[in-house]
Design goal:
The protein is mostly beta strands. It is built from two helices and 32 strands. β9 and β10 form a beta hairpin.
């Protein structure tokens, strides 16, 4: 996926946001701890509000959460930028000069395409006055989840004046993608005097969600104590906790982090707050700061998945409630914390049967090899601590060539090893044969007691004696779901 992390400032929206709060939010202005969420998980794992107006206790009449992004009045324009059997990406309007001095543009994703991740997005807008301005993914100001659709709002510095958008030229693919040079498009946009409103997003201005979650495994003990942020408009959230390991850490601890609704994913290196290392039998605290792609949204986009010491956690960071059956498809981890899978495809991944999936990964080549004379490998590692069951779909991509090899895929447990000159070893949890004609098919795995599983196969994609590479079998993995 080779993702790039966009850092988006929201300070420019705060002044507008303040004017968009409804009467109930304004009437609460003098209450203490406004916008602060403090939630404690009790012994049964339920969430209880302890202070502030951001989170209502069970049975209360209403939540009072301030606006973090404004409600926009937008031109009612529409142009389809991408459409397939899974969904649609549309341009649905811009701000008017009546309520904004500069252009903000809005895209809407529907169907399964709402799970698309578009870091390569580049759109050039042409106005009726012949002026142009370009929007990149890094200009993303907010994502708003409404009625099953995803709205992406991009801010620009282009003055509106009396102009309006009449054309959009662009490309949705990253420059590293093989389809980058073939997917340019240009669409005309009809002017409209009609308008519509896109509701602003609400979220606490500050966050201090108290947690009391402890997990133990063969590696040690992990505690998650809180989710915090001094200013959530900065899109920065801190995961606070501690680790007590059974052996001194000799390698880097990696921490996969996923914001599922936006598609944002990164693998961070976990470091102690003060200690020099994670030492045996020492409670070592950490504060992992996460810079998200877009602001959190109460009721729409406030979940965070992450793994520490092989234990996977999935929580609503505002309420502290655990997310049941998280889909961790994109939380794949390769060698040394890297992610070597194919770039995200705006058109999704198409399996051998023609089905299009988005919440998935694809590998067209190999993730690593073990040196000359040995087959290269495809290996997808997922952290599964804290769960008993994992299911996923695996199959060949439609683009597989006629002479693509057959892969014997093996799912190994936590004791998986793959040493140079030796066969891969470990507890076998499941097996699956994938040919070039295999569509996505479900695999169920018992992961009880496993801190990680590795979906593994060797390939024949090595250089031949004539210097020509043998083909790989491009494979897709989707809907990786954990359950307790």
């Amino acid at each position: 996926m080779k993702k790039h992390i966009a850092i988006v400032g929201m300070a420019s929206l705060l002044v507008l946001a303040a004017g968009c709060q409804d009467d109930s939010a304004k009437s609460d202005a003098n209450k203490s701890n406004k916008g602060t969420s403090e939630v404690v998980n009790d012994a049964e794992g339920t969430a209880k509000a302890t202070s502030g107006t951001a989170t209502a206790a069970k049975g209360s009449e209403k939540e009072e959460i301030p606006y973090m992004t404004p409600t926009w009045t937008l031109t009612k324009q529409n142009a389809t930028l991408l459409k397939n059997d899974a969904g649609k990406l549309e341009f649905v309007g811009t701000t008017e000069n009546k309520n904004a001095a500069t252009y903000s543009v809005v895209l809407r994703l529907t169907g399964d395409m709402k799970d698309a991740y578009l870091p390569g997005l580049e759109l050039k807008f042409v106005t009726n006055e012949g002026e142009t301005f370009t929007v990149y993914y890094r200009d993303l100001a907010s994502i708003r989840m409404e009625k099953g659709a995803k709205y992406m709002v991009f801010d620009t510095e282009q003055e509106i004046g009396n102009s309006h958008v009449i054309r959009i030229d662009g490309n949705l693919y990253s420059s590293a993608d093989e389809d980058f040079n073939t997917e340019d498009f240009s669409v005309d946009v009809k002017p409209s005097k009609k308008t519509w409103e896109l509701e602003g997003t609400r979220f606490p201005i500050t966050l201090n969600t108290k947690m009391n979650v402890t997990r133990k495994n063969d590696l040690g003990t992990v505690k998650i104590t809180s989710f915090s942020s001094d200013d959530t408009s900065s899109n920065t959230i801190t995961i606070n906790g501690s680790v007590n390991v059974k052996e001194d850490a000799e390698e880097t601890f990696y921490m996969p982090i996923l914001q599922p609704q936006s598609g944002f994913y990164k693998v961070a290196s976990l470091s102690p707050d003060k200690a020099d290392n994670f030492y045996r039998s020492v409670d070592t605290t950490f504060s992992q700061e996460v810079q998200l792609d877009a602001p959190l949204q109460a009721g729409g986009m406030e979940d965070l998945y992450f793994s520490v010491l092989g234990e996977t956690f999935a929580y609503n960071v505002r309420t502290g409630k655990e997310i049941k059956n998280p889909n961790i498809s994109r939380m794949v981890q390769g060698q040394n914390g890297t992610d070597e899978t194919d770039p995200n495809s705006p058109n999704g991944y198409v399996d051998a049967g023609g089905k299009i999936v988005y919440n998935a990964i694809e590998e067209s080549q190999a993730t690593y090899n073990k040196g000359s004379g040995q087959n290269s490998r495809v290996a997808f590692e997922y952290q599964t601590g804290g769960y008993k069951h994992m299911s996923f779909n695996i199959g060949a991509a439609k683009k597989a060539v006629a002479d693509a090899p057959t892969y014997d895929v093996v799912v190994y447990g936590s004791d998986f090893t793959d040493e140079e000159g030796k066969e891969a070893k470990g507890k076998i949890l499941a097996k699956k044969t994938v040919t070039k004609d295999t569509p996505l098919e479900k695999v169920d795995v018992d992961v009880t007691g496993q801190t990680k599983v590795t979906v593994f196969t060797t390939t024949t994609g090595e250089d031949s004696i004539f210097g020509h590479p043998s083909p790989f079998l491009p494979i897709i993995v989707s809907d990786v779901v954990l359950s307790k």
